[in-house]
Design goal:
The protein is α+β, with helices and mostly antiparallel strands. It is built from three helices and seven strands; from the N terminus they run E-E-H-E-H-E-E-H-E-E.
């Protein structure tokens, strides 16, 4: 019998309305108490795939699906004809992402994630994020 690997959150497609967000079972359980009181950070791009995030941080981190309003994804074509996702301010927009429970991480584990977003022009800002039916003001990587 082979051990099943946990599924991850990912999105498919390039342009709205053809981009579809799909949410799967998280790798680690997050308790409601941790969501309402724990230290969280909102992510919204390629790091929503647990294998990519685990490789970057060097350790698994629990996450939960989340939604940010007032921003949306925009696709930018690179010189090599590949596409890159950007988060842009959009008054009526919304973007599905994830919140990471960073209170379970050591400080140095988060540094590669912070540097990756900073190198693309994003900084840490407080914003209201919807996690299930709970609205929390937490830190997010925003333009």
């Amino acid at each position: 019998m082979t051990k099943e690997k946990p599924l991850t959150m990912c999105w498919f497609g390039f342009f709205t309305p053809y981009a579809t967000s799909i949410v799967h079972v998280p790798e680690q359980v997050i308790s409601p108490n941790e969501i309402s009181k724990g230290e969280l950070i909102f992510i919204w791009d390629k790091f929503m795939k647990s294998d990519v995030l685990n490789d970057l941080l060097g350790t698994p981190v629990p996450w939960s699906p989340a939604l940010i309003r007032g921003y949306s994804r925009d696709w930018k074509e690179n010189e090599d004809s590949s596409y890159e996702c950007e988060l842009v301010k959009n008054e009526g927009g919304q973007c599905l992402g994830a919140v990471l429970l960073i209170s379970r991480l050591k400080e140095n584990h988060l540094n590669p994630l912070i540097e990756s977003y900073k190198s693309r022009g994003y900084s840490l800002k407080k914003h209201d994020i919807l996690i299930g039916d709970l609205m929390r003001r937490i830190t997010a990587f925003l333009p």
